[in-house]
Amino acid sequence: MSDSEARLYFDTSALLPYYREEALSEQVEGLLQTEGTIYISRLTEVEVFSALARWQRMAELTADEAAQIQTQFEAHLAQNFYRVHTLPDAIFDQAKHWLSLRQTALRTLDALHLACAQSVDAKLITADDKLSQAAQAFSVDFLYLKD
């Protein structure tokens, strides 16, 4: 796969540093500038909103800061900055299969992210250690971001 054909699927842990300054922000920004297709899922959308609500509750962001990030994220969605993958039954079936093997510490939502990445033949980009271990165990191409 050449750089011009790159297919990257960002789970939420890897996407959030793009919207809030964190140790991984620069690395994530560089990956998002990759020529190719950047995938997220409808699950990612929900998790971004959940993170914003949690950060505001925990006083890690003000209401204005959370609203600004939400506006920027929604603008990226509207501009088709990401290709948003839906969650058809096959995604749930694959996630359920991997979980049924009980070979990893894979959790429900991470299993869905992993299945999404596999279904679009994209490299999973994650900052989640357990998800990266599961990706390796199930032979899904991945990049584990560490600070």
Give structural attributes.
147 residues, alpha/beta, Rossmann fold, 7 helices, 56% helix, 14% strand, globular
Tell me what the CATH architecture is: 3-Layer(aba) Sandwich
Q: Given this structure, which CATH class is correct?
A: Alpha Beta
Q: Assign an overall shape.
A: globular
Radius of gyration: 15 Å
What does this structure look like?
By secondary structure, the protein is α/β, with parallel strands linked by helices. The protein has a single domain, classed as 3-Layer(aba) Sandwich (Rossmann fold), CATH 3.40.50. The chain is 56% helix and 14% strand. It is built from seven helices and five strands. The protein has a five-stranded parallel β-sheet. Strand 4, helix 7 (129-137) and strand 5 (142-144) form a beta-alpha-beta unit. Helix 5 packs across helix 6. The chain is globular and about 45 Å long.
Short description:
The chain has helices at residues 12-19, 25-32, 42-57, 63-78, 89-101, 108-119, 129-137, and strands at residues 6-10, 36-41, 83-85, 123-126, 142-144.
Topology:
Elements: E1 6-10, H1 12-19, H2 25-32, E2 36-41, H3 42-57, H4 63-78, E3 83-85, H5 89-101, H6 108-119, E4 123-126, H7 129-137, E5 142-144
Parallel strand pairs: 1-2, 1-4, 2-3, 4-5
